[in-house]
Amino acid sequence: MREAREHPGKDISDLLIHPFRKTKVLSVQNRGEYAYLACGEGGLKVLDISFVDDKGFSEKTFTAPVSPIGQQFYVNTAYAQYACAPTTLAPDPTRNHYKENEDAAVDLMYAFIYVCDKYEGLILVGAGTLLDGNPLNNYLKRDLTYNPNGLLCGAKYISFVGKYGYVCCDKGVVVIDFGNPLKPQVKAIIGHKYVHKPTCVAFQFRYAYVTDEDGVKVFDITEMDNPRPVSKLKVPHAHKIYLARTYAYVAAGELGLVILDIEKPEDPKVDQIYNAEGEMHDVHDVQLAITYPSEFAYVADGHGGMKILQLTSPETHGFMGFSAHPEPKLIATYKIPHGGEALAIGRALDRDRAVDESGRQIAVFGRVGARPFNRDEMDKMYLHNKKVWKVSNDYNDPGYSKAQWQDLPSTGNGGGGPKLPPK
Predict the structure, then answer these.
(1) Bridging pattern class, strands 269-274 and 257-261
(2) Is the pLDDT of residue 302 over 70?
(3) Which residue, 155, 310, 344, 373, could crosslink 377 as a Cys pair with Cβ 3.0–4.6 Å?
């Protein structure tokens, strides 16, 4: 990779108003036409990244197209360490709804940018103005600062599963209910008994994976507000984690990229460790994305810059299966100029995601009145009496009764049902 666009994470006005403020971009997430940046002492910055290659000015990414007076794409905070939205899709909770469309409203939770601040805790910034197509109202401000009794001091990461946000902070991982985003409620705390200095949380179906200074900890989140520890795996230098079906990708510092087999979440295993023959030795972040038929990993390798790994291709064994075994290969590198470090990679677009884990619609459906399952309907698909419903062929399974077995439908062999197996 030879060509790149850059932005320092601060405006010209910052040099005049805050000449001694140090700005360091610690996280980035792109959504639609904008990128959200957590810039340490510089707080939250939002950049316009639309049509980067087609713009007629020298600065391809910026916080105001004409003048900083024309809009305010920043919010000052004490020390912003992470900024994100609950989804990389761009649903607009503020849009008008017409009765004849029979469409569901997007939940208000998706109207905010969530900023983790080292000293202030969690800050909610209204982002609805960035989604409504009106360039005249783009003035960002904080709508809520949430840090009850200092619980969220040291906040460095937040990830969402349904209406719940899991915040990594000094106290551990704090689970917060954002059903009413302006009146959040703490539901659970995963304390130091289970996690030590957590850095990241990722979710897949009924499990949450937490990286901390010990490695990777796995929690059962069948009840999303009541995580239950189920397994752990020692992985030194674990920073961030990305889940992709039966594999997890851990950014593991000097080790490189550690790929885990998570087909059985309660018994994870190290599948392979990849460092591109020593070229990856400071890995901070990893994100996966699909381009045409191939899967790629985008890696922030600290002083090593940005790396791109090809994981699968049409030549990969098992390529047409559900979860092909990754065969990582380094295919591109970009060194950050002037001694810069690659610390974070923006998450790719979450395609084909129409509903969150709480059953709330986040995309427009193609048919009038169409909607996804709500949470109660989802639960009926896999839970029975709040326990995971599993199928067994064992007649002696305590989950079966003789009456249930006799009531099974006919097998088509002329009988009224299968015969009972001998005891």
Answers:
(1) antiparallel
(2) yes
(3) 373
